[in-house]
Amino acid sequence: MTRPQKPYTITFLPANATVQVDPARVPYDRHGKPGSILEIAMGHDVEIDHACGGVAACSTCHVVVKSGFESIAPAEEQEEDMLDTAPGLTPRSRLACQAVPSGACDIVVVVPSWNRNHAREGDH
Question: Are 115 and 49 in contact (CB under 8 A)?
């Protein structure tokens, strides 16, 4: 993983939660690729549903990158295959578990309403 060279922010909509990403603290050892949007969200207590645990085996962590899309490496084939199953697919859709920002600019992502888990099980 190429670590970002400078701090940047990710804003999660509609929660309106903004996270300052410190490159020295990435990865957080959470779900998804190291430094992914999902990992950063989970590392800052921003919930994004991810039924498969962040391994690109579903599309529940589908997000739409409203700005900063150009700072994220292109999707790999496995991610593209899973995105094909996501409702509401747009040209700026990504799986949060696979999308790793470079830190070149700030990011704004929208978590679609159908991908927000409003009821969550407790820890087992």
Answer: yes
**Sheet strands side by side (includes 17-21):** 17-21, 8-13, 107-110, 62-67, 93-95
What is the number of domains present in the chain? 1
The answer to whether residues 53 and 61 touch, using CB atoms and an 8 Å cutoff, is: no
Q: Enter the pTM of the model.
A: 0.86
pLDDT at residue 124 greater than cutoff 70: no
What secondary structure letter does DSSP report for 72? Answer: B
Say if residue 109 is exposed, middle or buried (CB neighbours under 10 Å; 0-12, 13-18, 19+): buried
Q: Is pLDDT of 50 > 50?
A: yes
CATH of the domain at 76: 3.10.20.30
Q: How far apart are CA 31 and CA 49, in angstroms?
A: 11
